[in-house]
Write a structure and sequence with these properties.
The chain has 506 residues and is α+β, with helices and mostly antiparallel strands. The protein folds into 3 domains: 1-18 and 63-193 and 377-506, no CATH class; 203-271, Roll (Pdz3 Domain), CATH 2.30.42; 282-366, PDZ domain (Pdz3 Domain, Roll), CATH 2.30.42. The protein is built from 14 helices and 20 strands. The strands form 7 sheets. Strands 14, 15, 16, 17, 18 and 19 form a 6-stranded antiparallel sheet that branches. It has a 4-stranded antiparallel sheet with strand order 10-9-11-12, covered by helices on one side. β15 and β16 form a beta hairpin.
Length: 506
């Protein structure tokens, strides 16, 4: 199974909730909570008459409540994952009678919000919400406790244990995260099942893809000779697999496009965040008084099915056709009350007639979806498949990070927070948590000093070479790892702030 564009955890398409959007007027306040993620609205900015879905438009408002809800979900999700990850290290250490001196959720430079001593371990909560840690006695870690390491080794210290035990202790957190991702996916599938949209619908394409030969109204059959069964596969398969050949159904015949550059790289290089979108009828919900649409005779309930001599029965294609002809007379073919009539309209200088259409949620019933329910055993099998495919897809996507455009997509906590729903949705929350758990496992396995993978690498070296690396070498490696990670964190945070100010999360 693969993941959807904005919901990498494979959940149903979430809805966003914009109950107070400054400067924008929706058709019906009751529909504010029904703005489907995969849909588009034709909305009007009250400050100036402009089609707000113009490619150059950027969101100009900040919704504190939405941000707070997403931040709360992110904080809870990461707290669960960090605690369980560190418990993996803790349980493994205690199994081999290794002393754990500290166990902290969040970092505590200078002071702690809470701490208590239970047995040999200090349990606490730090004030800086950037992960957490366990301090294992006799281990060179980010604490850089050289004083302890200068003392004679004690039997309860990490450094006194056999290499195979130290390896298990360092892998403990990673193993817990892998198991947790699988368990959560299984639980989600058992509780909510899956709702999928079959890949039987024509789509609208980003202009970047149109330049490659895609045409609005094409139906994507598959990639590299492989048929795609569900709509959610279109973006993620296109991103994660090395797609250089696309099979399309166009005007009743099969067309094959050969691409010079793999599709995923195109998404990255051109900043394509929404390459495909479902096509909806262009049904008018409201006409502004004395607008160009009103002058032309358009009414609520009308469906525009053609512009000029082109048959364009979809909202996206109608919108693009109208926008392409500012201050130019156009003949519109309209369906009204079961009949067709022709109307003459002249878009304004911005290519707008100033009318609004229904949100995408209005048309959701026109698409037949497939809902899959799972019993206990089938949920376990499906959960394993989902977890393994999600992890594979994430690993495949890492190749883009080694390109200039791919590096610009690196994000921090803001990026992670943005994929949560604008309301508290437990299904989406747990799917995202499972996804983050797998990411945390993979990232910690990277052979970078200061990460679990760095310690694993040095332990494996010891087991192969028959002798450990010197403590001085390990201390220097730890410092190098920290020096490498800190600029990366700053870079990721900078990317997030840039996207916030430029509308990159829209």
């Amino acid at each position: 199974m693969t993941t959807s564009p904005a919901n990498p955890s494979n959940g149903p398409i979430p809805t966003t909730h914009n109950n107070n959007v400054h400067g924008m007027r929706f058709m019906d306040p009751k529909l504010h909570t029904q703005w489907a993620q995969f849909g588009r609205l034709w909305i009007r900015c009250e400050q100036r008459r402009v089609n707000c879905l113009h490619p150059g438009w950027r969101a100009c408002t900040f919704e504190p409540m939405v941000a707070l809800i997403k931040a709360a979900q992110l904080l809870l999700s990461l707290s669960i994952l960090v605690v369980l990850h560190e418990l993996g290290h803790y349980w493994a250490a205690r199994a081999f009678k290794t002393r754990v001196e500290k166990f902290y959720l969040f970092m505590n430079p200078g002071f702690s919000l809470f701490k208590t001593q239970i047995g040999e371990t200090e349990w606490g909560i730090g004030w800086l919400p950037l992960g957490g840690y366990v301090k294992i006695a006799g281990m060179i870690d980010e604490s850089m406790d050289t004083e302890q390491m200068s003392q004679p080794a004690q039997p309860w210290e990490f450094r006194s244990k056999p290499a195979w035990q130290r390896l298990i202790i360092m892998l403990g957190g990673i193993v817990v995260n892998l198991i947790l991702g699988f368990v959560i996916y299984s639980g989600v599938l058992y509780t909510w099942g899956e709702t999928k949209l079959p890949n039987v619908h024509p789509v609208n394409f980003d202009p970047v893809l149109e330049d490659l030969g895609f045409q609005d109204g094409d139906r994507i059959l598959g990639y590299n000779g492989r048929t795609l069964e569900y709509y959610g596969d279109l973006r993620m398969e296109g991103f994660n697999k090395r797609v250089t050949e696309v099979d399309l159904l166009r005007d009743g015949r099969k067309v094959t496009l050969s691409l010079e550059k793999e599709l995923g790289q195109v998404f990255i290089d051109e900043g394509v965040r929404r390459p495909f979108s479902l096509l909806y009828p262009c049904e008018i919900a409201e006409v502004s008084p004395e607008s160009r649409a009103d002058v032309a005779g358009l009414q609520p309930g009308d469906r525009i099915v053609a512009v000029g001599d082109m048959t364009l029965p979809y909202y996206e294609t109608v919108r693009e056709a109208i926008q392409a002809h500012p201050e130019t007379p156009l003949r519109l073919l309209v369906e009204r009350g079961g009949k067709q009539l022709a109307l003459d309209a002249v878009p304004d200088s911005l290519g707008s007639l100033d009318f609004m259409v229904h949100p995408a949620a209005y048309y959701e019933g026109m698409f037949e979806t497939t809902h899959l329910d799972y019993g206990p055993l089938s949920a376990i099998s499906a959960g394993y498949s989902t977890a393994s495919e999600t992890l594979k897809d994430y690993v495949r996507s890492m190749r883009f990070l080694f390109t200039k455009s791919g590096a610009s997509q690196i994000g921090s906590l803001v990026t992670f927070g943005s994929i949560f729903d604008a309301r508290w949705n437990w299904e989406i929350f747990w799917r995202n948590t499972a996804f983050f758990s797998l990411i945390l496992a993979f990232m910690n396995l990277l052979p970078i000093p200061a990460l679990d993978g760095g310690h694993v690498m040095f332990t494996l070296y010891e087991m192969v070479a028959g002798r450990p690396a010197s403590e001085q070498f390990l201390e220097r490696a730890q410092i190098i790892g920290i020096v490498l990670l800190l600029p990366l964190m700053v870079f990721a945070l900078g990317n997030d702030f840039w996207r916030l100010f430029t509308g990159g999360f829209g």
